[in-house]
Amino acid sequence: MRILVVGAGSTGGYFGGRLAQAGRDVTFLVRPARAARLRADGLRIVSPHGDAALAPALVEAGSVGGPYDAVLLTVKAFSLDEALRDMAPAVGPGTMILPVLNGMKHVDALAERFGPEAVVGCVCKIATQVDAQGRIVQLTPLHFLAYGEMGGAPSERTARLDAALRGAGFDALLSPTIAQDMWEKWIFLAALGGVTCLMRGPIGEIAAAPGGRDFALAFLDEVAAVARAAGHPPGEGFLTETRALLTQEGSGLTSSMYRDLREQRPVEADQILGDLLARGRALGVATPLVAAAYAHLSVYGAGLPGR
Fold first, then answer.
1. Given 76, 105, 125, 185, the catalytic residue
2. 0.85 cut: is pTM over it?
3. Is there a catalytic annotation at residue 185?
4. Which CATH superfamily is domain 181-302 in?
């Protein structure tokens, strides 16, 4: 199976790197600056599961070739339009597109551009970052990738995909409930991102602050209410686990949005919070805390250099 990984940052570089290390046929579609660094230094992973260094196969926009059997789309949401244009030559009639972007807004964009049949649901759970040396550093042992048909039915193509992704150095799962998995990840990211960005601190500090625990739980309740109204009610087990994570004393847990905010980088506010807010309003669900967090991050984004 020929696999194109769009982006070689912290997420694409990790999963694509592990696939390449396991001998899969993997090519990375990257921008010129990232390509130059990877050609000079290689793709380097620093991980609790073992470090890796490899010379990846690279292509840049305009020289993609194709079609590929699968495209793992790992860019940030604010780079989606450019990525769709660059990867278009890689998408043929039988290509599966696996997006690991946050939220659900990108699913509509992919379906509009390539057709709904091209989209295979995908969820990743991993905490990684690219350090000053250009290495992909895994922050915790969690490295999980789930995928499946959006409608939930088994298919021959996802069985082939599953065979290619399993045994590649990370936890892989062919899920019959991938759409629900994607919604529940969105709920978690929106709650964690909104809480940590609005309060400007990790979960442990928020839980220890006066009213912090109640604030975190109220934020989660708003997000869950939107999902419930949209026809994707979160499971009770998921909610119990998420409530515990959002209120854990002494926890250093933060969101990628908060880490980007602290580093003065763009954040995915529109996709993680703005789209959720818009869906809630359309469904008549009041979300004042989500609205406050989105307004806060919108002000931050407008003040970034170059905006």
1. 185
2. yes
3. yes
4. N-(1-d-carboxylethyl)-l-norvaline Dehydrogenase; domain 2 (1.10.1040.10)
